[in-house]
Specification:
By secondary structure, the protein is mostly helical. The protein has one domain. It is built from 5 helices and no strands.
Length: about 90
């Protein structure tokens, strides 16, 4: 049951990335890491934005998430997901 619940949370996170990706891209204006990939979590994109230094608003979001789960954004980064597949979606 624990794994089911965790998988459900991840799928909701990925769904939110797809649903709100265009809005987050417009508001946060990340250059390298882009929102919207259906196989990537929001935390992964926020973490990439902080790592790349191209999303100033990603930093305070990650600070908040890191209070709940230390190192959350950094450990959520999925380098094999994101920008390379995003062009297929649009």
């Amino acid at each position: 049951m624990k794994h089911w619940f965790w998988n459900l949370l991840i799928s909701v996170d990925q769904l939110c990335n797809v649903m709100f990706g265009p809005l987050l891209n417009a508001l946060l204006r990340p250059k390298l890491a882009r929102f919207g990939d259906p196989d990537e979590s929001l935390s992964s994109v926020f973490g990439k934005g902080v790592r790349n230094g191209d999303c100033r608003l990603c930093r305070p979001i990650c600070r908040l998430l890191n209070r709940l789960d230390p190192g959350h954004c950094q450990t959520s980064i999925e380098d094999d997901e994101g920008r390379s597949t995003i062009g297929v979606l649009h």
